[in-house]
């Protein structure tokens, strides 16, 4: 059986793209990446577009906090449940076909959300937003692994996440302006129309590999699929990546997707404009931290889990300061909150690097799907919990949530952080032990013993 390093790949594992007769041209690879990451950016925009529309949605559909949370809950549930099937689809049908299907679904779903005038119709539209969103990121990661030099992959993955977060920026201040000046239907129709342009560009530019527009993998029987997933999940490096993603992503995701805007406006007393700006600052922090994190883990792969643990402790600390502050926290403290919480986004991407170096190429997409669902399941749990706690702490059917209600609701994060912290430490030990058994020389080199 082939032995695979858990933390720092040997040279063979860096060469995880398909073998071709000549290296991809840099300009061609760049054009494909730009279009693919543009589709991912659009998916992040659609995913985040409800964040600043939460208060407007409660009025349009006459719903409670729990019902508002159901929008994001359903979207996240579909996204998380689709990660493994999408990984298998990418292995079977290639990135180009799956990414194009996702772009078409997103466009139709956002147009449906624009015209929805009842709660059930709006829920149906958000379900398909989650489905289309789920079909983007894994495809882009596979294209990065195919088209770029192996040692550039960790940084390119972080840059991909960085550029993708521009979609969250355009879902903050610009969407706030659009909803105020254009109204609900026109705002979401304009957003949907962008998908037509990106789908056309994708079909014209993107190729699965240097020597093929479309790649098709072999059909897998159910028994082979189960065996492949079991092999990926059984590796402690995959599980460590899973819990890294689980622990560091959910706080920023929930703030950006739904509860950040109401928390800052009603929980901390900011104006809508200031709340939108702070959410934009959070995304900028994600974008700034991503390349630095990618560069650091390339130099020091042994300390990937140490970096994640440090960022996780910082996130917990700054939330503790905000939630324990008597009354409304000062604006500078809230700026620190969104910056540190935002860094959790690129920190979660480190989990994909663990999956990449712990699995052979033919399991890459499915292992990525396993890891990618972790943070979104955590986000789903938190979205539901916040909505339920807000309704519990708010009298009657009112949506006039108090700062105290938000303090109770946001404190639910401590339970998820505690679970994640324990599991990261646990599988960090197991993954390093696995490396020591599989490759003692590599373990000694990485741990600094030689």
UniProtKB/TrEMBL annotation:
InterPro entries membership: MFS, MFS_dom, MFS_trans_sf, MFSD1
Keyword check for Chloroplast: no
Superkingdom classification of source: Bacteria
Pfam families found in the cross-reference section: MFS_1
Chief localization: membrane
The reaction(s) this protein catalyses: L-lysyl-L-alanine(out) = L-lysyl-L-alanine(in); L-lysyl-L-alpha-amino acid(out) = L-lysyl-L-alpha-amino acid(in); L-arginyl-glycine(out) = L-arginyl-glycine(in); L-arginyl-L-alpha-amino acid(out) = L-arginyl-L-alpha-amino acid(in)
Localization annotation: Cell membrane; Lysosome membrane
Keywords: Lysosome, Membrane, Transmembrane, Transmembrane helix, Transport
Recorded family membership: Belongs to the major facilitator superfamily.
Protein name: Lysosomal dipeptide transporter MFSD1
């Amino acid at each position: 059986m082939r032995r695979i390093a858990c933390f720092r790949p040997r040279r063979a594992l860096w060469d995880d793209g398909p073998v071709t007769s000549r290296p991809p041209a840099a300009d061609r690879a760049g054009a494909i990446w730009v279009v693919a990451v543009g589709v991912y950016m659009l998916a992040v925009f659609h995913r985040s577009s409800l964040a600043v529309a939460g208060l407007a949605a409660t009025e349009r559909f006459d719903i409670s906090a729990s019902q508002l949370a159901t929008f994001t809950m359903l979207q996240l549930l579909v996204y998380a449940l689709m990660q493994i099937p999408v990984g298998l689809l990418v292995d079977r049908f290639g990135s180009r076909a799956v990414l194009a299907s996702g772009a078409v679904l997103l466009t139709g779903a956002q147009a449906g959300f624009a015209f929805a005038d009842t709660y059930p119709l709006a829920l149906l539209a958000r379900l398909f937003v989650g489905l289309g969103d789920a079909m983007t990121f894994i495809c882009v990661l596979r294209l990065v692994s195919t088209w770029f030099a192996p040692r550039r992959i960790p940084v390119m993955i972080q840059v991909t996440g960085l550029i993708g977060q521009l979609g969250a920026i355009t879902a903050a201040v610009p969407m706030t302006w659009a909803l105020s000046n254009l109204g609900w239907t026109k705002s979401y129709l304009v957003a949907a129309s962008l998908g037509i342009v990106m789908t056309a560009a994708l079909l014209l530019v993107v190729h699965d590999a240097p020597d093929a527009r479309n790649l098709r993998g072999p059909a897998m029987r159910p028994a082979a699929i189960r065996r492949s997933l079991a092999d990926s999940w059984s590796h402690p490096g995959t599980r460590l990546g899973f819990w890294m993603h689980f622990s560091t992503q959910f706080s920023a995701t929930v703030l950006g997707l739904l509860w950040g805007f109401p928390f800052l406006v009603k929980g901390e007393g900011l104006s809508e404009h200031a709340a939108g700006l702070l959410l934009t600052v959070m995304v900028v922090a994600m974008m700034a931290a991503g390349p630095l994190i990618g560069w650091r883990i390339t130099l020091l792969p042994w300390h990937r889990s140490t970096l994640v643990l440090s960022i996780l402790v910082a996130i917990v600390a700054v939330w503790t300061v905000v939630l324990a502050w008597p009354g409304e926290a000062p604006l500078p403290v809230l700026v620190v909150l969104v910056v540190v919480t935002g860094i959790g986004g690129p920190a979660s991407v480190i989990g994909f690097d663990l999956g990449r170096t712990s699995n052979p190429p033919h399991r890459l997409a499915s292992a990525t799907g396993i890891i990618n669902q972790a943070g979104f399941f955590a986000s789903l749990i938190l979205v539901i919990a916040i909505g339920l706690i807000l309704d519990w702490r708010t009298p009657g059917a009112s949506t006039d949530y108090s700062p105290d209600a938000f303090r109770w609701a946001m404190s639910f994060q401590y339970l998820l952080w505690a679970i994640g912290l324990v599991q990261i430490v646990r599988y960090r030990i197991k993954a390093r032990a696995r490396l020591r058994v599989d490759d003692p020389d590599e373990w000694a080199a990485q741990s600094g013993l030689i």
